[in-house]
Structures are given as C-alpha cells and as structure tokens.
Amino acid sequence: MKITIATGPIFPVPAVRGGAVQRLWEGLAREFVKRGYEVTIFAREFPGQAREETVGGIRYVRWGGYEQSTSIRRDLLMCFLYAMRVARKVPRGDVVVTNDFWMPAVLPWLKPSAGKVVVNANRFPKNQYWLYGKAAAFAAASAVVARTIKEQQPGAARRVMVVPNAIDDGFLVTLQAGADREARRAGPTKILYVGRIHPEKGLELLARALRLLGERLEAAGKKPDGWECLLLGPMEQGAGGGGEKFVEEIKGLTAGLPLRFLPPVYEPDALAAIYEGADLFVYPSVAERGESFGIAPLEAMARGVVPVVSGLEVFREYIEPGVNGMVFDHRSAEAAENLASALSDLIGDADKRRRMGAAARATAEKFSPAAIAHKYLQLFEKVLTGNVA
Questions:
Q1: Which of 141, 125, 167 is nearest to 20 (CA)?
Q2: Which of 14, 169, 258, 368, by CA, is between 20 and 30 Å from 77?
Q3: What is the pLDDT of residue 225?
Q4: Helix/strand/coil (H, E, C) string of 89-142?
Q5: Residue 348 phi/psi, 5° resolution?
Q6: Strands (E), 124-252
C-alpha cells in the first residue's frame, strides 16, 4: 500500500514550531513504514528544511505554504490556492489522508490517481463536509466530531468513523522511579497549562479560579510561595494566540499571584520533561465548537500528571472523572469556584494525585502511535476493499 499524508499549508513537518496534528501524522508515518508501507508526507516549505528528502524511510515533499493571519477569509483563499497547487504534485498511490481544509475537495478532481481520500477530521465541523462528496471516509478524532459531521451532512454518515489521535512516543517513554519523580517535583506545587494563550481556552476563567485558589490556600495556611501556575504556549495572534492585549488582561486578573507565562516548547522530549515537572495539569477550554480532541491533557497524562479539564464532551474520550482526571462544570455560574475547588482538592492530597496519575498514565498508553496506526491501517483496508459502512 502506498500512503500519502497531505498536511496543511501553515505548520512545517517536522513540527519545529507548533502543529500537534503534524506531530501526530509524522509519528503515524513512522509506524506505517515499520510495517512495510511506502509513505510520503506533503507539508509546507520552511527555512532549514529540505525541499525534498527521505528520512527514516519517509519521503518528505515540501512546497508552498503561508503564514497564518487574523483574517479567516484571507486564510481560506490562501489555503485553497495551496491545495490547488499541491494536489497536482501528489504521487500516484492507494490512499491519501489529509487534515487540510480544501485538499479533500480538490484532490479527487485534480489527481484521482493519488488514491482514495480519507479526511482526518481534526477540526470541529463547520458545515464544510458537503464539499467532500468524493472522499472515501472521514476519520473523526472524537465521537462528538463524528456525530456533528453526521448531523451536518447526513449523506456522509456511513463513511464516518472515530479514530482517536495518537500521542508522540516521546511522551510515552518509561517514567522515572517514584523517588526520582518526587525529587524533580521538589519546590512549589506546580499547576501547568500548555496550549494557545487564547480566550477560547478558558484562561480568563482560570485566572479567576486562581484568585479564589490563592485565597483558599492562604486561609489554610499555605504560603503564596508554596504554589505556582505556568502558562506555556504561543501568545501572538499570528501563531494562534490571543495577542498582547489578552495577555495583559490575564496579568491584571492575576496580579500578585504566582503565575508565569512561558514561550511555547514543541520538541516532544523537552515538552515531556516540562509535563513531568508539574503536579497538576489544567485545561479549562470553553471552546464548545472548537475542541475536536484536546491532545495536551493526554500528553500530560502520559507523564503521570493528573489533568483538570472543563466539561467539554471531547475530554470524555480519555478522562474518567475521579479516576484518571478531574472534570469541572465550566457552564455553571460558579465555574471559577468549581475549578478552584478541583485544584484545591488535588493540591491538598498528594496520595490522590499519585493514584490518579498512575491511572492517567495507563490510559495514555492506549493512544500510542502503534495502537492508532493499527486503527488507521484497518480503515485504509476497508476503504480499498469498499467495505466502509
């Protein structure tokens, strides 16, 4: 089987400056190659990366691409032009899997010899699936994405199936022994967030919750220097962040609290070390129509860190409340209080953190590249034999 992976025009592969989906597909490509399949990855051009090369058995072809802007119309036009140009360069093959917006629409017309098109539905559907009438299958990252595709495009229902995201092997290396892990976590109790510094990620809600948390911990006799919260991720609008004004708003809401902003880290091994140095992971997203899976909490779980997440349905793909993570009601009028209570509960109970952290790690191992590659290969075989239903 010849497999082509056509990524979008914004992030490079390898993902040297962001792009969780790009990391996902490079990891799956390695697994496909291990099983003897021929794999080509199409990605945007990027300084320092060769236009074409073969590394580890994967053929990389890099062409075009653009910098993301704050204009959706402009980006959709640029994305369309990218797809029109790149589609003609896709080699003859059996299957093309893509997460690009326009590629599933133009590829069957411009290069049918590229193979059956499988759409990797890693964005929340926005009524665009009518464009993909010739796609052979839709691999939805979560049950809620699959259901929404079916609701928006009933005619595609039989071609939709759930194939969850994989996490990079770098997060799944063997955990350190207990004593060593505790030594690395010496110092203030660390609450970590990793993701875009953007309003839809619920960071204003987190800021209000941290204010309440600080008051509760102080009342319980825990000194202000006994805990800290780290927000790690891109802040600039061009990188998907909320911009300087939003960052200043969060700083104003948390004035006097031990909160720090850190620049994004994209290299899996370095990011894994940051996760492992945390005591808790918080991901308070309020993006009801934005989160399609939420990979960051799962990455934290792989390092034995307990996640605290909002009540978005996508997180139920891998979080069982009270067992391997905590879920708070973000839709309630008391959302900040709910989040503060969840954080306070875990900060005050190290044994609970260790127990839930072990369960979190066990869950994350089910999302290894090897396990998810197997699911995709099963889907590809169904597509090629016409058994998708």
A1: 167
A2: 14
A3: 64
A4: CCCCCCEEEECCCCHHHHHHHHCHHHCEEEEEECCCCCCCHHHHCCCCEEEECC
A5: -85, 5
A6: 137-140, 160-162, 189-194, 227-232
End-to-end CA distance of the chain: 21
**What tokens does 185 get?**
């976590």
Residue closest to 99 by CA, chosen among 88, 107, 89, 109: 107
Beta bridge partners of 121: 140
Under 8 Å CB-to-CB from 178, ≥6 apart: which residues?
A: 354
Note the pLDDT of residue 222. 67
Report DSSP letters for 1-54, one per residue.
-EEEEE--SSS-SS-BTB-HHHHHHHHHHHHHHHTT-EEEEEE---TTS-SEEE
pLDDT of residue 184: 54
Residues contacting 30, CB < 8 A, separation 6+: 56, 57, 58, 369
Closest-CA residue to 335 (of 360, 315, 357, 308): 308
Burial of 329 (0-12, 13-18, 19+ CB in 10 A): middle
Q: How many CB atoms are closer than 10 A to CB 346?
A: 22
Residue linked to tokens 């010496």: 186
Q: What is the pLDDT of residue 119?
A: 97
State the Cα angle at 17 between 131 and 188, rounded to 5°: 120
Q: Tokens standing for 383?
A: 């597509």
Cα–Cα distance between 226 and 223 in angstroms, integer?
A: 5
Residue for token pair 């990391």: 23
Average pLDDT of the residues of the chain: 92
Angle between helices 244-253 and 203-219 (to 10 degrees): 20
SS3 383: helix
pLDDT above 90 for 112: yes
* Predicted local distance difference test score (pLDDT) of residue 29: 97
pLDDT score of 224: 59
- Cis omega (within 30 of 0) on the bond before 14? yes
Sheet holding 137-140, edge to edge: 52-55, 58-62, 38-43, 2-6, 95-98, 116-121, 137-140, 160-162
Q: Is pLDDT above 50 for 255? A: yes
